[in-house]
Structures
1.
Amino acid sequence: MSANAKWLNKVKWDEHGLVPVIAQEVGTNDVLMFAWMNREALARTVEMGEAVYWSRSRKKLWHKGEESGHIQKVHEIRLDCDEDVVLLKVEQTGGIACHTGRHSCFFQKFEGTAGDWQSVDSVLKDPASIYK
């Protein structure tokens, strides 16, 4: 499949050629993470059936789980009503989506009584043992 496929033209890419992507766990509907994709990343995601993102810090494609083994198998891809946000419904292998070793990247909750952010989800696996 070409990165110039007609269906890719429906997506409203930002000025950097990127679109925000939300990864949501199929079944639980937990929001696992937020990332970015360019045309090639979205095309590869469709081709592979696994999430491929664009790493803004590394300036390259990033196949989720390429280092950690925590691959996201894509069950469904949706585009929002404004056509500028992609939602991936994924099966998170190993149950860990976050580089901190947690199930979700959204593990910090604002506690108004404490007036600060609190970690509310435990580390499932030490990141030092995931990333070599």
2.
Amino acid sequence: MERNISDVVIKTYIGDITELAVDVIVNAANSDLWMGSGVAGAIKSKGGEEIEREAMSLGPIRPGEAVMTTAGKLSAHYVIHCAGMPPGGRATYWKVASSVQNALNIASDNNLRTIAFPAIGAGVGGLSEQESAKAIATGIIHYTKEPRSVKEITLVGLNKYTCDCFDQAFDDVQE
């Protein structure tokens, strides 16, 4: 999928978010910002423990908020940590949507143009891929009403099903 909303290109990518050479990748974080399993674990494993140390020095934050760190050894320049849930708790639709909006604002405040999001709140967070995708689409559509520096958003799934959920979410949310 590739679509334009306002002057923002939104596309999907099947694969590993840690491999993308974009300005910033998003970590599906907990509000204490320690990086355990899933996307967070992959980012820490490939990018280095300094990402987690820097993130934790900025927290804790509230679910729905986001903070930015350097990206260690990753191809991306930065990591934005979106807190969709408290540690050991469950993500909610509105916390994920809010964290996406906050991530896009942080990226714009730093004049970044390209960002990649995983399925925040899915998996360990307890949301289905469909719920996560709709929450992310909601946050992105809100941003595109008054877009700033971010011009390309990549939605990353480990499989075709997750990417299909992203595609369907934009159709559902825009109706």
3.
Amino acid sequence: MGQTPTLHLLYSCPFCWKVRGLLEHLDVDVNYVGVNGMKIKKDVAFAGDWGKVPVFTDAQGQHHVDSTPLLRLIDQTYNNGVMAAQGDAARREEWMTWVDTHLSKATVPILYGSLGSALKTTTRISKIEKFGFISKRLYAWAGFPIMWGIIARKRVKRDGRTPKKLWHDLLTEFTDAHGDEPFFGGATPDLVDFAAFGYMRSVSPYPQFEQLTDHANGMAWYRRMEATLN
């Protein structure tokens, strides 16, 4: 039987939400372990020099990293690789790259694209993540100008679109690729659906998620994905 699998994660990490969504969909019995947001490398040092989350430890005690390979591993281990064999392989790989390139980079602008948004986000993260007493306050009040001033503002300026417009354009492009099917994978979701869902779901704990709710096709797909979770 082995041990119960474990997923070490940050609850605010979009890459972790990718993996968690697939685990929930497949109803895998797994322990979720939050790491200290200020001590990630130390908390996952057992997995080698990767130094990031998510880290998945399987029933045999082997550690696995990197969210997209983890999706494939979990599908193979707990679903006989059904999703990895679903549809056209070239199309799936093209769109997995698209999702990991575009949607992943859209999360920072929507959450930190203005000083107000950045403060709301870092304050929320300080409440949901595992921080010490001092580091919680340090992250909430010192983190937001860094995320806005150093990272998010540059991405928004480089792209030229508001964070909302960026997300709406990406959701339109993604859902248009579904054709007349309810999911990218067709009648049922595939690994690309769960990758995209994870990035979008990572925005859901924050007030900025409201900026996505008036994209009709995007939200219809999102709600269908939610309905597949166990």
4.
Amino acid sequence: MKVFLMLILFGLVTGPVKTDNVVTRFKTPAGYRQSPAALGSFGAWLQALPLKPYGSQCLTYQGKVARTEAYTAGIVDISVGKYDLQQCADAVMRLRGEYLFSQKKYKDISFNFTSGFRCDFVHYADGYRYSKDRWVLKAKKDYSYPNFLNYMTLVFSYASTLSLQKELKTVQNPNNVKTGDVFIKGGSPGHCFMVMNVVENAAHHKKFLLAQSYMPAQSIQLLQYQEDPWFSLDEPAYILYGALVSPTYLKQF
């Protein structure tokens, strides 16, 4: 990998870098190093998520430039959907669901609706459909990816920041923030950010990358302020809902 990067630097390899993700695109700040993520973990999966080509705009589900475009540092190469559903909490659940589906951990794919109803993928994949806070058998068994996306659309329709906040666990020591953690405040409106990567220095001070969706539903975007994509818990985050980047709102799956 080091040899390949050197070839790119000296112009001996041209064309797009196929491994463009949060680790390869965003340079680690001086004095910091990459925080490790266990092989096969949610954090490692997030770090390896492909990004759309550099300069891609943040678009809404209707294909319009999103009002958050000014904060775009990168765009996760994942579908937005045709409806105004994949907003802030939905994007977090989408990423978590995608990870579990990719690992075939179907029994772990489950999210609560705001009503408290537990909506799990196994029921849905086995042909059950949601009706007034209960499951009704209506379809054939289908564990395909398209059907997983149908399940996530159902989740987006009935879950929210309020329900997701209740599901997540409080991070007891914020200094241990890790890739895959979530800053979230439930409400109307509520909002949340996903931690996409973490770096730290010799003094164990950490900086991290953040991703979000917004209203109306838009691309999942990596964020920046004045071209700096690295945030920390001891500095103000000058982005929309930046006050949530605080130990008070830090949660984990």
